[in-house]
TrEMBL record:
Family: Belongs to the folate receptor family.
Signal sequence coordinates: 1-22
InterPro entries hit by this protein: Folate_rcpt, Folate_rcpt-like
Protein name according to UniProt: Folate receptor gamma-like isoform X2
Native source species: Echinops telfairi
Alphabetical keyword list: Disulfide bond, Signal
PANTHER family referenced in this protein's UniProt entry, alphabetically: FOLATE RECEPTOR, FOLATE RECEPTOR BETA
Ranges for domain Folate receptor-like: 37-212
Length: 259
C-alpha cells in the first residue's frame, strides 16, 4: 500500500515526461514536412509528382500534383464517384458557378502546397483535413458572384445531408433558396461551405501571401511561394519543443530515484 502510494508521483512524473516527448514528436511537423506534401485523405496520392494527363481545369497542377489523372477526370463529373456529391441538389447549378466548385475540387485534390494548413481529424473517410487556408480575396469574390443566383439548401455542405439515396439530398426541413440567401457575403460562402477549410484572406492574387484557386501555370505555381512563407512564419512562431520542461523534470526524476 505504502509502496503503491509512493510510486504514484513517480509514475505521474514518468507519464508527463513521456507525454511531453509524445507531443513534441507528434506536433512538430518541421518546415520541410509542410512543403510539397499530400494530405492523408480519401483520394490523395502519398507523395506529389508529375501527372501529364490531368484533366481540364486541373491541368495547372500537372507539373506537381497530389491527384491522379483519374481523380482529376472524375471530379469534373456531376455526382462524381469520388464522394457521390451532387452539386444539383436544388435544381441545376449554373455552369458559371459549377466551374468554381470544380476548381475548388482541383485545388483540394491536387495541390501539394497546402501543408501549413493540414490538421488531423477523426473521420472515417480521411485522417487529415485543411483548416483556414488563406484564399485570395478575389478568388472568393468571383466564386460568390458567379454562384449567387444558383440554388442550395444549406450553409455547411460538410455535414447534415440526407444520404439515404446514396447521394446527398436536402434534409426535409432545409428549403431551397438562392446562394445569396444562404451565403450573404463572399466570406459566408468560402468559409462556411467546407466547415472553415478556407479563410478569406485580405491579400490579393499575386501578393505571394494568399492561396490562388485559379492560376496560369505558364508563370509557375504561385502557391509554392505562399506555402514557403507561411511554413517559415509557423516554424518561427512554434515553440521549440519541450527542452526546458525536460530540463526541469529529469533532475527531479533522478532526485526521486536516488532519494
Ligand atoms: C477512377 O476513380 C473512381 C473513383 O475513385 C474509381 O471508381 C475508378 O475505378 C477509377 N478508375 C480507374 C481506371 O482507376
Ligand atoms: C431522406 O430521404 C428519403 C428519400 O430519399 C426520405 O424518405 C426521408 O424522409 C428523408 N429523411 C430526412 C430526415 O430528410
Ligand atoms: C484589408 O486591406 C485593405 C486594403 O488593401 C485595408 O484598407 C483594410 O484595412 C484591410 N483589412 C484588414 C482587416 O486588414
Amino acid at each position: 500500500m505504502a509502496v503503491a502510494l509512493q510510486m504514484t508521483p513517480l509514475l505521474m512524473l514518468l507519464a508527463s515526461v513521456a507525454s511531453a516527448w509524445g507531443t513534441h514528436s507528434r506536433t512538430r511537423r518541421d518546415r520541410t514536412d509542410l512543403l510539397n506534401v499530400c494530405m492523408d485523405a480519401k483520394h490523395h496520392k502519398t507523395r506529389p509528382g508529375p501527372e501529364d494527363k490531368l484533366h481540364d481545369q486541373c491541368t495547372p497542377w500537372k507539373k506537381n500534383a497530389c491527384c491522379s489523372a483519374n481523380t482529376s477526370q472524375e471530379l469534373h463529373k456531376d455526382t462524381s464517384l469520388l464522394y457521390n456529391f451532387n452539386w444539383d441538389h436544388c435544381g441545376q447549378m449554373e455552369a458559371k458557378c459549377k466551374r468554381h466548385f470544380i476548381q475548388d475540387s482541383c485545388l483540394y485534390e491536387c495541390s501539394p502546397n497546402l501543408g501549413p494548413w493540414i490538421r488531423q481529424v477523426d473521420q472515417s473517410w480521411r485522417k487529415e483535413r485543411f483548416l483556414d487556408v488563406p484564399l485570395c480575396r478575389e478568388d472568393c469574390q468571383s466564386w460568390w458572384e458567379d454562384c449567387r443566383t444558383s440554388h442550395t439548401c444549406k450553409t455547411n455542405w460538410q455535414k447534415g445531408w440526407n444520404w439515404t439515396s446514396g447521394m446527398n439530398e436536402c434534409p426535409v426541413k432545409a428549403a431551397c433558396h438562392t446562394f445569396e440567401f444562404y451565403f450573404p457575403t463572399p466570406a459566408a460562402l468560402c468559409e462556411g461551405l467546407w466547415d472553415h477549410a478556407y479563410k478569406v484572406s485580405n491579400y490579393s492574387r499575386g501578393s505571394g501571401r494568399c492561396i490562388q484557386m485559379w492560376f496560369d501555370p505558364a508563370h509557375g505555381n504561385p502557391n509554392e511561394e505562399v506555402a514557403r512563407f507561411y511554413a517559415e512564419a509557423m516554424s518561427r512562431a512554434a515553440p521549440r519543443g519541450h527542452g526546458p520542461l525536460l530540463f526541469c523534470l529529469v533532475p527531479l526524476l533522478l532526485l526521486w530515484l536516488l532519494g
